[in-house]
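Explain this fold:

***
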Amino acid sequence: MSAPATRVPWTPPLVRVMAGLMLSLFVAAMDATVIGTALPTIAKELGSFQLYPWIVAGYLITATTTVPIWGRLADIRGRRPVLLAGLLIFIVASALCAASPGMAWLIVFRSLQGIGAGCIQPVVFTVIGDIFPFQQRARLQGLFSSMWAIASIVGPALGALFVSTIGWRWIFTINIPIGLVAAALLWGYAEHLPERAEKRKLDVRGTILLTIGVTLLLIGFGTGSQTATPNWLLVAIAIVLLGAFARLEWRSPDPTVPLKLLRHRVIGPAIAVAAVAGTLMFGVTAYVPLWVQAVQGGSAYHAGVAVGAMSIGWPVMSAISGFLMVRVGYQRLVVAGSLALLAGSLMLALGPASLGWVWTGAATLIIGAGMGTFTAPLLIVIQTSVDWGRRGAATALNQFSRTIGGAVGVSLMGVLLERYVASASAPLQGREQLQAGLHADFIVLVVLAVVVFATAIALLLASQKGRAGEVPAREQVSSG
């Protein structure tokens, strides 16, 4: 059961389904970005300041861990019931977050909210892959991909507005009506959301190993901690569990994460690009603000503008790449995007601090443009390379690899930075070492960009036998 080969007409029911999908994606994206500006106020009101990093960490851990599980469930149970279940969890958890009586409860409910959010993005993009043929899908995936970038601009501003006017609890309350409208639109128009895909079972043992392993990995690498130093014991245990998971999944006829997809000549390099690019993206978000404020002498506003420039380049090029893909093919877009990543990373690494935050913002703008150029094309080619029964898992694997790559990579970059700072023996030298440490992190970004570019070239060479855009049907990976 593949995506239709001919153009799908825009009927009123289809428009309503697409509106529901877009609202679902936007509310999940906005929720992930709106929390940042409200955290200090939440910590002040609820107390237990030492726990407040877990408001973000609990959400990140559950949202990341459940992505591949939701993707596989969408293949087994069908898109509609799985997406509605994820939305319901997200809506209920949002209401509970808004009513939280204390910090511990907020962390628990925020983690529950992450479980629902982990469903929304992979299943939404899977549905788009189901409904539309290649040409329409290329344009729509680009537009939908830009929702995250738009939310990264709208979310913090909305959070600041709520905190300064009606209170921080409204950053969660606002999710309820938006989520309910999205669910109503998707509930009433089921013809575009098949309810059942295939009669297979979820790999319970694999799911348990994956959940525990990824959770320990993220905690071990400092998620939720106020220090960047990893807990190597937890990391080691996580590696053992994930190794056992990989061995089990490789042999399973119904794996939660279809690792054999990585052997595909297109999917393997595409997933590698997603993982490495995720590290680069997270690295920019984590360390550019510190560079602007501590080294270049800019304000918090300047730091926000500098890193926010990435969120401007991303949606613009994401929308454009969706239209260009039909004309030039995904391979050229991936190469062009990787070159932009390399150019922006070189600007960060080679530009002296005296150039100021405007130079830094220009660099992140180019990096964002590069990410936007190849993110949607890579997703489309991954979806095109598998049949209906593997599309949900493949889509989830793409998102999962980007998030895991980012979380682990940023933590290791934090270790590198800490070693530079720890070697300082005086305050003045400490500032110099901080600059040296951040510069070392930017060199790491350049290396990552080179890896992305090399992988993009490999993807281009590996795809020479195919057409410029869509992967040949004979190379699709089936669910059988």
